[in-house]
Amino acid sequence: MKKLHKLGLAVAAALMTQAAVAAEVKVEWKNVDDYRDIEAVSDIQERFQNRIMENLTKHWQELGEKLPSDHKLAITMTDLDLSGRVEPTYGVGGSGYIRVLDSLSYPTMTFAYTYTDGAGKVLAESEEVKLKDLADGTSTLRNIHGTSGDNLYREKRLMSEWVREQFNTD
Description:
The protein is α+β, with helices and mostly antiparallel strands.
């Protein structure tokens, strides 16, 4: 029982330590209605947009865990084009839409950022960063769902690669 209690304390301490090393990350979404492709399929547009923004904001914040705790990263999203393209379907129930993923329909995102240290000194910034994931031609829906089950897998991978390259994180 004593070992179990010590293990619980060790796990709690590790979780608190992890939270303590995370940089503060703030994400702002500007003019979402003007984004290239954040189109819902089989969902209500507003609910879909909110879910996409929440999931990507959460991922930016998770990436902040790789940065020093006294640093701040401010991201202003200005454009997003999700993986795939929306195409109509026709069947017994009428018409509908699906998002088709292939090697030609890659995600892109545009944002501005400011990265500061604990004293507020700007360490890096840009008014416009454009990212695109041309992938390797194997990122089909079947491959993505087989590896992660995350509909935003390619977008998150794009963000993760940028943070790793920009801030030399592992």
